[in-house]
Amino acid sequence: MSETILIENEELAVEVHHLGAEMQSLRTADGRDFLWNGDARWWTGRSPILFPIVGKAPDDVIAVNGKTYPMAQHGFARRRIFDLVDHTTNACRHRLVSTEETREIYPFDFGLAVEHRLDGRTLTVTAEVTNPGDSPLPFGIGFHPAFLWPLPGATGKAHHVILDNGAEPGVVQLENGLIGKTLHGSPFKAGHLELAPSLFENDALIFPEGTGTGLTYGADGGPKLHFTFENLPIVALWQKPGAPFLCIEPWHGMAAHAGGTAELVERPYTVALAAGESMRFGFAVEIRA
Fold first, then answer.
1. What is the dihedral of CA 146, 152, 154, 158, to 10 degrees?
2. Closest to 235 (Cα-Cα) out of 218, 221, 220, 217
């Protein structure tokens, strides 16, 4: 079996790798690729799925009822092979389930299904978490897609992020990878942010109050990507300073608080999914121009 799956329609083509159910490319019919290519000189990720935590844990350790377990930044799903459970021309669905190995570092049973689906010029990526156990399942989940900066055909043009709701959300800073206690003033002005590498000198911009349910990333006189979010109340923007990509990251979860506890249930925005229940999260991106 090939390591990647291709889905396509008359407008778009997307490749998805079985490792991490991670998208590898997002290409328009005219050959323009909008997704970061994973160049190891900058960052090997392209669009990882973050589960069962988002961000970092203190000393890379989580605690469950006082017992500690090793947990790398952004969790382990992005480093696991998913099973392909459905594949049509324009959609594919991958699934990861708990094993003896995962229970050694995350002592819960779970199911995580990730779907990529095309409809016209829109890609929708959803994750459904299922709790097959008999007690609440605590987790965080997020998406970490990286898009080209500059966008195709927009070299030398100003790039912006514009919020649908025109808000000016506050931002928190990371302290050694953990969430700082202070909510700082917004870099947005009336929902508008002109992008510059200097914004990311202190790591990601994290908006714990969210940015609303939609935003546009685009270039003056160039292409634009419009995003909508489902059940993902937090957004982060990240660029490794000077790298040719911008990550637009919708999350339900964050890193642990600096100086706070390692307990999983006390991480910001942790979900406690009831036994036998499922919950869905997702984002859609429409390519305009």
1. -10
2. 217
pLDDT tens track for 191-200: 999 999 999 9
In DSSP terms, which residues pair with 70 in a beta bridge?
Answer: 61
- Structural domain boundaries enclosing 243: 4-288
Total tally of structural domains belonging to the chain: 1
3-state secondary structure of 274: coil
d(CA 88, CA 68): 42
Q: What is the pTM of this model?
A: 0.97
Residue 132 near residue 117, CB atoms below 8 Å: no
Task: Give the lowest-confidence range in 84-88, 124-128, 208-212.
Answer: 208-212
Q: d(Cα 277, Cα 214) in Å, to the nearest integer?
A: 27
Q: Please, which residues have CB within 8 angstroms of residue 9's CB and are 6 or more apart in sequence?
A: 89, 90, 118, 119, 120
Which one-letter DSSP state was computed for residue 51? B
For 225, other C-beta atoms within 10 Å of its C-beta total 24
CATH number at residue 191: 2.70.98.10
CA distances from 92 to 13, 73, 89, 260 (A): 12, 27, 8, 39
Output DSSP code: residue 265: G
Provide the pLDDT confidence category of residue 289 given band limits of 50, 70 and 90. confident
Nearest to 2 by CA among 91, 84, 79: 84
